[in-house]
Amino acid sequence: MILRRLCVQHFRCFRSPVDLQGLGTGIHVIHAPNETGKSSLILAVARALFDRHSTKDREMNLLRPWQTKLSPRVKLEFETGGKRYRLEKAFLDDASSVLDEWTGSRFERLAESQEADALLRGFLVSSVPGNGVTKVGNWGLARLLWLNQSEERYDLPGLDTPLKARLLETVGVAALSNEEQSLLKAMEGAYRQFFTPKTGKLVTGSDLDREGARMRELREEAARLTQRLAEIEQLASESMDLGQKQLSLAEERRTYEQRLASLQERIAEEEKLEQQAALREKDVERQRKEWQALDQKQRELLALQQKVVQQEDLLARNEPALQEAQGLVRRAEDGAREARERHKAQQGEVELAEQRVERGRLLEDARASLAEQRKLDGLVKQGTRVETAVENARRKTAALKALPDAEVKRAEEVQRKLNQALDRLDAQGVEVSFTAESPQRIEWEAQGHTTPHKLTREEQKVFSGVRAGALRIKGVGEVRVRTAAEEIGKLEAEVEKHRKDLARRLHEHGVDDVVGLRAEWASQQVVLQELSKYEEARSQFLEDNKVESVEVLKEQQREQARKTGALSAQLNLSREELQTHPFPELKALTEELKARRQEVKARDKAREEVEGALRKAEQHLKVVTQGRSSAQAAAQALGLELKTQLNTLGLSLEGLGAEVERAEAELSRLENMVRGLRAQLPRLEARATVERKKLQDTLERIGDEEKKNQEKRIRAQALLEQAAADGLYSRLCEAEEKLALAEAAYQRLETRARAAESLRTMSQAWQDQVNQTFLAPIEQELHSRLAYIRGGGRLEQLLLDAEFSEARLQTAGGPWPLEGFSWGMREQTLFALRLALGELLAKKGPRPEPQLVVLDDALVNTDAARHQRALEVIESAGDTLQILILTAFPERYRTLRGVKEFDLRALAQASSPSS
């Protein structure tokens, strides 16, 4: 199917009618900025072709123009099946559907309402829609050929049964009959009763699954009952063993209780010895602390006495050093006073030398200022001369009448064209021509023989007013003859035109010919070059002196004069006296000042050395004095502290030593008593308390084991009683009988399932072979276009499944899903698929016809090189398809040949009431 005309009104942004006419096979580019209705235009075509006119759901109501109650209207003219139709469809409030057929001279009514909607779906192999607007999955051939901006843009267009049958028919594969399809459906249904189609796993909840679950439950029940019966028999044996074990544990407990009672007397004797030893150990610890305190005090007092002696020795040694330090301080003070006086006198000489240098520097600056002023005077005179020359040249230039070089070249070009026209006119003068005489008789000559022919009146009319003619002799050739009158007239007119143009140009500049015009231009160039020379000299002069203009130079001259006057005023000299004043040698004065400063530095250094020696001597005296005072104070403080501590103790150092010896002897006696008591006790592991603890732990373990043994015995007896009440033997027999019946039923169902699986496997093998025959030409057409778009070096083959639900690229690592590749690769693949399917439907099969392919911004993620190759693919497909390209970037498609362009925004504005 291809569109011939499309008119949309009251549809989304198209409130006024927008009409696209002149559509046909070939490439059509519909362009407009974003959000101006490109995608809405294609949506309007889809709604008209696939939706019931009576649809009124929310999505259909959203097609109304914003904030209006207008009903969407679409009018289509299209061709399909070799016939032409016109469709007029309105939705919502004024819903209607009218389909007309072209009868050769006019459109006549074919169908209305629901019948018209059904016929439209049949044209495009569209399936019956559900409730609401028709989804993309029900768009029939448009689902295969349109690449629009929908959510399924990057998904493969899956095939339903009618679409697949149409493609099978196109590629020459016979479609299945209804009986064959019913048989396949029955086999598929039988298989689906037992297995899932994708995974091949057992269907949850199927008869086979339920019987298998029931059989497993019965097996588990029989195994559980068998296990429980074995456990009951084991419990009976264990119950008897537990009774024997309980008796042996009671006998063992009585034996340990008797041994525990016999240990009480030994425990009492050992506890008495432990108490006596603990009391003596406390006495030992108290005596040890007393001895340690006396010994520590004795050590501290002896150390304090030693410190007193050391401080008194230090005080005696510091006296001579103090007297020597006082003598050094007196001598250093005398030397410092003398150094300060010599340094002050030298500083006065430096100040006088600085004054002489400063005046010499001022004289030097004044001399340099005078030289700079003389230089500026000369430059100002030179600049004034150059400026005057430039002004004179400008006045000469202003008096000239402007004659551009382009004007001279145009005059020369007119002269050249005039000469060429005259030459052509002269050449026409020698061209062979003829003037028709009375056209009553014609003759021709061939191989020296003349043949006349007399014309009839009707033939004479043919030659009336003829200016050119040709004689054609079949099998020989053709002779042409013409007059030159018309060409000569044109040449004469051209000569006159060029002559007038040249005369006008020469007259404007007051010259006689082009040579004079060129001479006038040359004289002007001389004056302009002179002006350029003077301006260049002025620029060079200003650039050499780094100023912007002569006025700036004059300002510098005045500034330098003021600077020279200021310097002469500082020196108290006039300018005339300054020019003749003797200038001292600044270098000599500077050297003298330098020598004086060096002498000051030497004096300053000597003064600092003497003052440093004085500070050092004073510091030494201070240190010696502080050391003497510190030693004296420390000796007094330490002696006082020693005396105070001895008075506190009420002992002398000798008496304190005797107390330490007495405390040490008492400590030794008490330790001997403790060792004697400990020797009377047995070893720790042989004591009665340790053995009692072991017996108590053993009795506790025996009691726990008796308790656990009794609990096990009671539980075993209870289980035995319950098993007797449940009738385990009869239940086990019943479960085994049910299990045998369930296994037989499961075996029957499993045999049916395997048979269904085998039939499906054979039918799928046959269908795969059919699908391969069906897919091979489609994949070949698709791969050839995709490989060309991608360019060299990328040869992966695209693999489709029979329902177009999955696509994979055969890479070096194996098949890889198309979803794993980039957005650009995916859109190029789906673009190539649309064109391949469109050309197959347009060229092959029992009923080929041109198809409509819609590309709504189909290559937005494609680079420039691949985009250009994609355009070449579009060009080759434009001969057999109708391709509608909707884009916001028309410049990307300008290289396409034979394109029809539609500016959608301009069409919408032209149809609006305001325009």
TrEMBL record:
Coiled-coil regions, chain positions: 208-356, 603-759
Gene3D superfamilies: P-loop containing nucleotide triphosphate hydrolases
UniProt keyword list: Coiled coil
InterPro entries, sorted: P-loop_NTPase
Top-level lineage group: Bacteria
Thylakoid listed as a keyword: no
Entry keyword annotation includes Transit peptide: no
Protein name stated in the entry: Rad50/SbcC-type AAA domain-containing protein
Gene source species: Myxococcus xanthus (strain DK1622)
Lineage per the UniProt record: Bacteria, Pseudomonadati, Myxococcota, Myxococcia, Myxococcales
